[in-house]
């Protein structure tokens, strides 16, 4: 209702507020007919921007477009949603006679036609819905909107009508033509205008001064968009004078900030970097005409978004370098499963062009699956993708022919269901053994997944997201490794021969390899220990306790690795679901001993109570009654059963400010807080990071490549991202963890 109230204060005429009460819904034809009937014949009604103040800036834009065939051709002007405004009358009298006025109210069009049919005979009046204009393409030089877009953009209505209207505006404008929009420039209106005219349009915005006698608190803005030939985005030019800025209101400041934000987005798209486009960007012209094949064209994009598709997909669009008539397919989709995404043939640009050539497709769209898609069937993936990729298909003769799907295998060569369990807390849970397909021998791949067997824990509630993944190892080889202690010390040699192969053997002959981390996000969590390596080193040398609390057991792979690799740790795991604990012990080799304990309970409650005990201990220390020193690490790896918030992991309770403050109290000096963040919502991610910045002074982030996981680290003390910390941690470990040094030095970024 905010926009409606704003507009109500802008009206002219007698008792406008009482008359405006008849409208209610600004998008209703019946309401407008009733409104104009009450106003009576011969009445004029101005939303905002009176002619004396509007005349000079508006007329300066009504000149012949730069690519018009003849400067003698009359300028064709369209005024959509004209209402009973006198704006067209004033423009006509200024010498521009070819004006077409449209409105969906029969009442107002009939009245305006009677009023001007003799005095201004060249002016046309049409009853028409501005979201469905009955004109041919590219027939107008100017589209002049005075409040029409604002009326369609009531916040409670959404952007649907506004988007349809702007699509029509762009269609009927000639190349080089102008869309001139007089608006209050509210945030939701600019939020549609800016992206819709981001690619291939020049945009300026200026304020129209109020008349001296006006008591209005609102500024009217004139946004001018020129339809160009280039798709490259150009900066929005603001033409605000110093007097406006010096007496700026909240409304003006909001517009200035919106322009700055939009220009930063446009600068990003103009940077020349490898941009990741959205489908909406492409439909708005980010890469020109999508229906046109451009030999050698290649760009990356994201398909799908929350609310419109089941999943999001990273994709690459490639148009064959040599276009010919011999293509088997005009357009094709090539699916790359998660396990093969890192192979040279699919991850490198050179390899992708080989795929294009072998596919015999004029346009190939490579779609890369990741952890989100593991348990989705190919039928589900294709059903989800089909309405998205159809927008990327080039023009062709056989418009009704389906787009074919190709695939580099489904990634899983063999799947054995070990157990299906039902939990009242978690829902259906699956334990499975899988063998991934072997990579091709001729693609320069160095993948270590060839023929190996993995055991996985999957929660079906998370749309097939794999919770945990472990290597399986022959028990006879594992026993030999324990006897040959040097083989699991600091040697970097691989143990590929010890790992379970695809051959069918009794399951009892294999066990979980707890000396390796199969999940990259577990390696990311461990990498964070480097941030407090000096504290860990000092604690070990002094014989002090180092306590690790992990909220969320999963299969127990991370705590078991820490237990084996860092023997000085005292580990406590908090798991809400006893079924998960049983599965971890039964199928993933999780054990409890003096250094490893698991508690079935609420992780939030545990941290709150532990923080309170910590406060009590601190009071005892200050009174001289205790002198216990302990370094603490808190890891949050508990997913959420409610996916409506856009936050898959952690549960929203673990990122609320009150919990984060308790976590900080629990850690005390030298502590480390780590959380695994999985979210499809950029807004939710920013919210989580903002909350953590409010509580912690030192915050770091690790975005895992090709994964949906992001690891956030918060330290209570100042630390540095440096190789020396990695070396200190390495010395404390019984055996190495691959990739930590590269992660800490090149991928972890400081956020605060």
TrEMBL record:
<keyword id="KW-0511">Multifunctional enzyme</keyword>
<feature type="region of interest" description="Disordered">
    <location>
        <begin position="477"/>
        <end position="506"/>
    </location>
</feature>
<keyword id="KW-0808">Transferase</keyword>
<feature type="compositionally biased region" description="Basic residues">
    <location>
        <begin position="489"/>
        <end position="499"/>
    </location>
</feature>
<dbReference type="InterPro" id="IPR029063">
    <property type="entry name" value="SAM-dependent_MTases_sf"/>
</dbReference>
<keyword id="KW-0489">Methyltransferase</keyword>
<protein>
    <submittedName>
        <fullName>Methyltransferase-like protein 13</fullName>
    </submittedName>
</protein>
<dbReference type="InterPro" id="IPR051419">
    <property type="entry name" value="Lys/N-term_MeTrsfase_sf"/>
</dbReference>
<dbReference type="Pfam" id="PF01564">
    <property type="entry name" value="Spermine_synth"/>
</dbReference>
<dbReference type="GO" id="GO:0032259">
    <property type="term" value="P:methylation"/>
</dbReference>
<dbReference type="Pfam" id="PF08241">
    <property type="entry name" value="Methyltransf_11"/>
</dbReference>
<dbReference type="InterPro" id="IPR013216">
    <property type="entry name" value="Methyltransf_11"/>
</dbReference>
<comment type="similarity">
    <text>Belongs to the methyltransferase superfamily.</text>
</comment>
<dbReference type="GO" id="GO:0008757">
    <property type="term" value="F:S-adenosylmethionine-dependent methyltransferase activity"/>
</dbReference>
<feature type="domain" description="Methyltransferase type 11">
    <location>
        <begin position="80"/>
        <end position="181"/>
    </location>
</feature>
